[in-house]
Fold:
Amino acid sequence: MTILKWSFFALVVSLPLVRLFNLPLFNAVIPATDFIFLAVFAIWTLALLQGKTSLRHSRFYLFLFLYAAAMTLSTVFSTDFNRSAIKLAGEFYLLALAVLTFNVVRNLPDLRRVFFAWLIGTILTIAASLVGFALFYIGYKTKAENFALFQYGTLPVGNFPRLKALFDNANMACNYLSVSLMLALIADQFGWLKKLPSRILQSGIWLAAFFTFSPGLGGMFLAQGFWNWAKYRKTEKRRFAFGSILVGAFLAIAFFAATVVHPDTANTDLDVRLPVVNYTIEPAARSLIWQQAIETIAQHPIVGSGLNAEAASLMYTTLSDEPHYLTDAHNTFLSVAVQTGMIGLAAFTLLLIFLLKCFLPFELFENPQSVVKIGLGIAFISGFLYQGLAGSFEDARHLWILIGLLAGFGERHKSET
Structure:
């Protein structure tokens, strides 16, 4: 195997190693995985110049370019140019991740190795969660004592840990694990993993994800339901297939609803008394943030406020009486619109449409390419589209790796059918 592919697989393994393996640089904390990327990109560029590899031709680059151009334009007209310029370099890095993945992973053997690299990272994530879980019940119940713990957020405080493993927050950990679940299911379908290790791995993914207590769990249930439906809908298990997708959709709606409304607190007077159950609810923190984000967009509707601009300014006291100052949009699409305006949102939407066309419509498991296409497409729906409704995941490194895989294998499948 070439040094390029070995180094790329090392990059994939390192994706979840965000917190304990980073370096301070220019008043920022840089994950070690970013330095691995620089080495991989340099090796790939050198291979291109020496003619040892070639650049794949695709419309994919056009949509990446449009999004990059929109982000550049928003930076030029930013309310804080220096802050936006630093973020722009980071955004180019994410786009380069997708381009690198698109060009390095070209066939099923390459994909198999990438899956194993990703699942090694997943095992490390599960292990970190198990250690954090054990430390909590041994008595290390604060974030200062337990590296894997995350704040309870809008959850009531209880004798249970909310885990982020090696990520910066629990929602990002859940997002990563939602993609890992689909890669594990694809590997299981191909027989790349033996049945017992595959079941243990999938159980570990669900266990670690459950203790993130993230709204992203709705995306995982939706993904599992979609997979079961695609796999069994034309077999004698078709009732199970349709039951799975109905349950998955119901739980996805329920988890999202939990991010929209919340039990009554002192944060707002917008209370609603539910009849019959005689229970009072109010707009959740995310609902209040989304309202402020829309107001921010209205101030700079064309090119946005600039990359890294704050979408909101909300002081919120949780059920555990913890005060939080919230500035993130907590929605991928609002986050993009705040920073890059309608021009950026349009370019971002065109990219998403291209990616959707890579795997829609869903097909039967007719051949290896269709299995990969369906699995990566479901991972994209769960991790990027669904979870993007309640979280800002447009800058997640692992999702841009996923985008590169989906674009590469989705376009290849269409060209072969």
